[in-house]
Amino acid sequence: MSPETLKTLAQASNYAVASATGVLALAFVAYVAQWGFARKLAPERELVNAGSVEGGSGADDPAERSNMAGGIGLSLTTLATLVLLVGVATRGLAAQRVPWGNMYEFGCAATLAALIAYLVLVRVWEIEWVGPIITGFGTVVLGASAMVYVPAGPLVPALHSYWLVIHVLGAMISGSAFLVGAAASVLYLVKSRAERTTPEDERRGFLWRIPSSAKIDQVAYRVHAFAFPIWTFAALIAGPIWAQYAWGRYWGWDPKEVWAFITWVVYAGYLHARATAGWKGKAAAILALIGFATFVFNFVGVNLWVGGMHSYAK
């Protein structure tokens, strides 16, 4: 491609990523509105028995407004995903390589992976109730990625390996699932506390129209169980093989390697405790959130504040 074409593709990518950020922020607002409109609604099972007692009909019905806002949020999330896909693809074409060679690109591509995972699981498990967390977190990541923007260009020699492609792709897929699991864990903590402390006659709002805490906990466990083997392969197999290619050693206790291992240990402990000790509930959810915190620090804090041999991936 000519330099002019590459420049045009890079500009198109920047516009698409910026547009996706704005659309995703609107999706977050719509999801928040969905929760807000439902603040006085009873649980779904009560509405079935009560008929139209909860409110009017049509546009004046809080349930209708809540459902409409949720539908808008899901539609905007889908649109943001498509626009971001264009942004990531054109970035790769402009750079003439896979579009995840630095923090900016990883943030955009990882957000895209998380949104795709969310939309797929909405179809499979109907997890629209994590929409505010997924879209809010995605908006923050895209906004923060813009702060570490670098122009499209070639990679340093150490990054020229198909094992890097496999390593980072695995990290993005597992990370997107970890985000969904963390969102479910947050809602589990909120819902389980509300179930313990809120009298039956005071249970109003969107929190009581989402699945029970037990079902939310089950979703979190399944997502983490899916993500963990992928993270194991990405961090402890593909990563060391790439390190051998790039630096002549499989493992050197570089800060990013250490934090990748810490993340693996935390999630391994989470899954082991659930499988052998029957851990469920608050302790398991907190451990899952600690694991996600180590994952985020590995890909943000280590690059920005700690450094190491991976620092050129900023």
UniProtKB/TrEMBL annotation:
<keyword id="KW-1133">Transmembrane helix</keyword>
<feature type="transmembrane region" description="Helical">
    <location>
        <begin position="12"/>
        <end position="33"/>
    </location>
</feature>
<keyword id="KW-0472">Membrane</keyword>
<dbReference type="Pfam" id="PF01578">
    <property type="entry name" value="Cytochrom_C_asm"/>
</dbReference>
<keyword id="KW-0201">Cytochrome c-type biogenesis</keyword>
<feature type="transmembrane region" description="Helical">
    <location>
        <begin position="225"/>
        <end position="245"/>
    </location>
</feature>
<dbReference type="GO" id="GO:0020037">
    <property type="term" value="F:heme binding"/>
</dbReference>
<feature type="transmembrane region" description="Helical">
    <location>
        <begin position="285"/>
        <end position="306"/>
    </location>
</feature>
<feature type="transmembrane region" description="Helical">
    <location>
        <begin position="129"/>
        <end position="150"/>
    </location>
</feature>
<feature type="domain" description="Cytochrome c assembly protein">
    <location>
        <begin position="100"/>
        <end position="310"/>
    </location>
</feature>
<feature type="transmembrane region" description="Helical">
    <location>
        <begin position="72"/>
        <end position="91"/>
    </location>
</feature>
<keyword id="KW-0812">Transmembrane</keyword>
<dbReference type="GO" id="GO:0005886">
    <property type="term" value="C:plasma membrane"/>
</dbReference>
<feature type="transmembrane region" description="Helical">
    <location>
        <begin position="103"/>
        <end position="122"/>
    </location>
</feature>
<dbReference type="GO" id="GO:0017004">
    <property type="term" value="P:cytochrome complex assembly"/>
</dbReference>
<dbReference type="InterPro" id="IPR002541">
    <property type="entry name" value="Cyt_c_assembly"/>
</dbReference>
<protein>
    <submittedName>
        <fullName>C-type cytochrome biogenesis protein CcsB</fullName>
    </submittedName>
</protein>
<dbReference type="InterPro" id="IPR017562">
    <property type="entry name" value="Cyt_c_biogenesis_CcsA"/>
</dbReference>
<feature type="transmembrane region" description="Helical">
    <location>
        <begin position="257"/>
        <end position="273"/>
    </location>
</feature>
<feature type="transmembrane region" description="Helical">
    <location>
        <begin position="162"/>
        <end position="190"/>
    </location>
</feature>
<dbReference type="InterPro" id="IPR045062">
    <property type="entry name" value="Cyt_c_biogenesis_CcsA/CcmC"/>
</dbReference>
